[in-house]
Amino acid sequence: MSSIGIMGGGWLGLALAEKAIVRNHSIKVSTTRKEKSTLLKKKGINAAIVDVSEFDISGDIDFFNDLNHLIISIPPGLRKNPDHNYIAVIGRIINKIELTGIEKVIFTSSTSVYGNQSEIITEESELLGTTAAARQIIAVEKNLLEHKQFESCILRLGGLVGPNRHPIFTLSGKKNIPNPLSPINFIHQQDAVNIILHIIENWQGKQVYNAVTPFHPTRIDYYSEMAKIAALEAPAFEKSGIIKGIVSAKKVRKDLNFKFLVKNLLILN
């Protein structure tokens, strides 16, 4: 049994906490909101209110004590706050890790760090992400991997889908959606959770893994089918566009002997 701290009790963090408890791990989850903390506690999850800014960490800082693993699952949040300094925020967490002696860290990164590459993308591929969020995530990855006091595992997640979460609800009925022939690079919540727990239970030291379901229809084919399944108007795509690469999850399957459970992502839940 491991003592695990999850920074970020959102859609993924909550599902991870629930599954980890079933597997007899000791779990603590941080959130920034009192109402979310209350919800977590009602589910039997040890919750703490911790607010991390680029300047300091406030709230229940005892959250960081007595942990074997810390999972950092805090998104950059640059859409709502374009000036947000995500690098500094994670830097504050790194400082706290140093002080409390946590030895193993998992960072939920994103395949956006690869940018618009067209070939098969592996963990060794160049990091060409150009968005503000991708650039900051790349810098955070580097800071974590280069740290000598603790080991970090970087998990580059594809687009997350699962219960009450799917892009078709946002894209339905929209026009001029770009890149119709690019493949999807998604992962179901259930597999994302299982990979994180698999990493904890089979720790390999400092590593980088892609976490993407080996299911890659084109965007136009996928969303057309998903619109039918959801009984929604299909999005209308542009005639052409760039064709991005398939993100390979071969390494996580080989190194950790991981088997994806949700292999067909033509589902809503």
Give a description of the structure.
Helix 1 crosses helix 6 (189-201) and helix 3 packs parallel to helix 4 (132-145). The two termini are 30 Å apart. By secondary structure, the protein is α/β, with parallel strands linked by helices. It has a single domain (3-161, 187-214, 245-255), classed as Rossmann fold, CATH 3.40.50. Helix content is 32%, strand content 19%. Strand 3 (46-52) and strand 4 (57-59) form a beta hairpin.
Strand and helix map with partners:
Blueprint: E1 3-7, H1 11-22, E2 26-31, H2 34-42, E3 46-52, E4 57-59, E5 69-72, H3 86-100, E6 104-110, H4 132-145, E7 151-157, E8 159-161, H5 168-171, E9 186-188, H6 189-201, E10 207-211, H7 219-230, H8 250-255
Parallel strand pairs: 1-2, 1-5, 2-3, 5-6, 6-7, 7-10, 8-9
Antiparallel strand pairs: 3-4
Give a quick set of tags describing it.
globular; 8 helices; Rossmann fold; 269 residues; alpha/beta; two-stranded parallel sheet; eight-stranded mixed beta sheet
User: Order of strands across the biggest sheet?
Assistant: 4-3-2-1-5-6-7-10
The Rg value, from CA coordinates, equals 19 Å
SSE order in H/E notation? Answer: EHEHEEEHEHEEHEHEHH
Can you tell me the CATH class? Alpha Beta
- Computed structural class: alpha/beta
Count of distinct strands: 10
Give the DSSP E fraction (strand runs of 2 or more residues).
Answer: 15-25%
Q: By CATH's scheme, which homologous superfamily applies? A: NAD(P)-binding Rossmann-like Domain
What is the helical fraction, as a range of percent?
A: 25-40%
Question: Quick check: average pLDDT?
Answer: 96
User: The biggest beta sheet, please?
Assistant: 8 strands, mixed
